[in-house]
Fold this protein.
Amino acid sequence: MDLDFPHGKKLRLVVGDITKIRVDAIVNAANSGLHGGGGVDGAIHRAGGPTLMRELDVIRAAQGGCPTGSAVVTTAGALPAKFVFHAVGPIYRDGSHGEPDELASCYRTCLELAEQHGVRIISFPAISTGVYGYPVEEAAGIALDTVAKHLENPASGVHEVLLVLFDQGSYEVHSKMAARRP
Ligand code: ADP
């Protein structure tokens, strides 16, 4: 499903494996220690190869990890992209501990990094909706709102944003939320 924005910009919802889709920048759902993990993080490191972790080791030595709601940049190794933006989503408790702002901040930070790096096409997984337990419907609303706000800005250089959903259930929830938008 595609949502259209002014100047031909698009937000696309797709089902798939984010490591297989060619873009300029792939967003990873990382953890604050930048150690790699399971889920999409494991898949990105396996497909990208050891250069990603080597670059994260340098970042970790310099700044000691990455705060929740923020992101760090590496090259993409063997992945079909130029960059990986490693974003740290919130661990969901009950939604009243700043999780919505932190999740929105992940998307916003990655879109700002995209602008700084001349990225035109960027893909996101459904950050925090796996092991971090964020309810998919709430997370989808935040992802869609934050991306839409960016694409509505005429000054944005990002042309296409893909939300890559790993399973049909997540895709359907995101599509339902997208269809409700004005
Ligand atoms: P988090 O710890 O932020 O919750 P997870 O990796 O556990 O991160 O899950 C985030 C989302 O990424 C989940 O919806 C999960 O199904 C999805 N996911 C897992 N592997 C992939 C993949 N290869 N491509 C796209 N999405 C994936």
